[in-house]
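so i finally got all the pieces together for this one. its two components total, 728 residues if u count the protein bits. some of the lines might not be protein, just check the labels. i wanna see the whole assembly predicted at once instead of chain by chain like last time, that was a mess tbh
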Amino acid sequence: MPACANGAPGGIATCVQAAESAMRGAMTAQVINLRSRETQPSLAPMLALTAAGMNSVNSVILDRMQSEIPLIPALAGHLISGGGKRMRPMLTVAAAELCGYQGTRHHKLAAAVEFIHTATLLHDDVVDGSDLRRGKAAANIVFGNPATVLVGDFLFTRAFELMVEDGSLRVLKILSKASSIIAEGEVDQLTAQRKIETSEEHYLQIIGSKTAALFAAATRIAAVVAEKSEAEEQALDAYGRNLGIAFQLVDDAIDYDSEAAESGKDKGDDFREGKMTLPVILAYARGTEEERKFWQEAIAGFRTEDEDLAHAVELINRHKCVEATRERARHFAQRAIDSIAGFPSGEARNAMAEAVEFAVARRY
Amino acid sequence: MPACANGAPGGIATCVQAAESAMRGAMTAQVINLRSRETQPSLAPMLALTAAGMNSVNSVILDRMQSEIPLIPALAGHLISGGGKRMRPMLTVAAAELCGYQGTRHHKLAAAVEFIHTATLLHDDVVDGSDLRRGKAAANIVFGNPATVLVGDFLFTRAFELMVEDGSLRVLKILSKASSIIAEGEVDQLTAQRKIETSEEHYLQIIGSKTAALFAAATRIAAVVAEKSEAEEQALDAYGRNLGIAFQLVDDAIDYDSEAAESGKDKGDDFREGKMTLPVILAYARGTEEERKFWQEAIAGFRTEDEDLAHAVELINRHKCVEATRERARHFAQRAIDSIAGFPSGEARNAMAEAVEFAVARRY
């Protein structure tokens, strides 16, 4: 929509609304390409595929979060043992299976990926002033901001130590670049916070950096250790990147989904923090003048009561923005699935495809 | 003093006092080994030695702190352009001169070292809730804690990108290990905060990690790029490490030195934050029962008024703890100077020796 890019605010909104409407048709058409199934998609095949590998990865994680400074394993363990899904290292292990890789180098690298992720979660919790993470008190609440910042730093340095031990400059390049992009994305998100004029394009750029870059790196490095071709590296990068975007979109949808189960974090956190996520961006674009006034006030931080959150959820429902966000997620999910079509069919590819379907179908 | 290590508190103190007294004699003897000179030691030879190299390093720093997210260069620039001495990259450049290195690889690596340092300063300011840094408002005061944490992360990732671009796994190992040790040291210091029982041994371990590890890495990597022997690497590591300890000791002394000029940070910050630095450790060890009671209350955070700080400075003066801390610093300074005795004499070695003398003689 380049013609919209420099229009006046009203012009952009109208233009976006028209484009949205057109897109909804297109997206619905795409969604039927997602494998139709009689049962709900499940993570079980992915868990089975990666069980042995994840045992080794978990050993590395537990071993390398140790330190003679007792606060470090205590704080790191609070989060690492705290019910995380270890989705990113699991993707590295799965992608290694897809590549037919027989070695063990990816175990350390998958642990490094999880450490980078854990470091960003710890810093996120400080940045957002979170109360809950994975359904329990966030590390910053239990251990305070200073320790949480510093242990995040520690895990980040440990991640680099693990990569350096592996010794592949190509892997180091992929993961240091991804880390840099994540940090940029986090700052970008902070800048967009409480800015109602944030566009869907800008939002996609933010989640492409802060979430999808690490997913992409996690799967791509498996192709590197398996010494696969550049095309296969690119394919696994695309798989991880599109899955990461889809995953984040669904996460953002769930925060406003009145039918979704409780998530690990506080329901309505995004709303109270004035985070511009896609459900809000769409509700604002599709809203009446009066509704837009509400959103302007809410995102600016002047409407933080429970009744305001309830009204926000109502507006988002009225314009079907949770469902629209999920439709967008299915678009990227489909791209993720299609990106690995060139790999041999079999257990690994099926599990990776079904994991994508699971990521977008989940209600929690 | 192994006989003291497991004694009762009173026993330790007496033992330490005796040892201190014996040590003061020994230290004075060592101090005369520091080059005697008619003029005060100066940084001028070091600045002259590294001027050309630092021009290149500064270009890399300015170039690589850029980002499309405007907040990143704004915040990073606040600190980086804010009067920092760039001591660590300067040491890399000087050490490269000492090794007779003719290439330019160390410019990027020196910039990486400065980025790691800057990242830790940004996070330190958040951790300490600092008001001032280098004589002006700290980044966390101007930009807030969230942005300061995230831009610190960004600079840290940029440091790794620079190292990966250089491509030396040996350098990557040295700097990732140093970064991990720094993070551990920061957590260790946080754990020791407000703990009056922190020993001199523990304090030396903390500053060895949080300060000296990066000095050691900064000088050591010059030997790596210059393809010098393991012995020369070790020598430059020892130079940086001992200088780093000496430098931190003098910094800690200045915070209680009634005769020192104003430093860039708030005078008495260490006191109010309950940081256990050597002047306090010594004043506590050498103090009467009544004085110890004061220190226990002060370090626990119950004495934070200006008159309390004045009393603390008076007690530290009474037991000559600033001077004792400076004597300890001179010990490590001497070791730094002696460690590079095996390198050819000349401009580089002289400048590096005088820089060490300057570091311990300075009053600001």
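The longest strand of chain A covers residues 132-133.
The first helix of chain A runs from residue 9 to 31.
anyway lmk what u think
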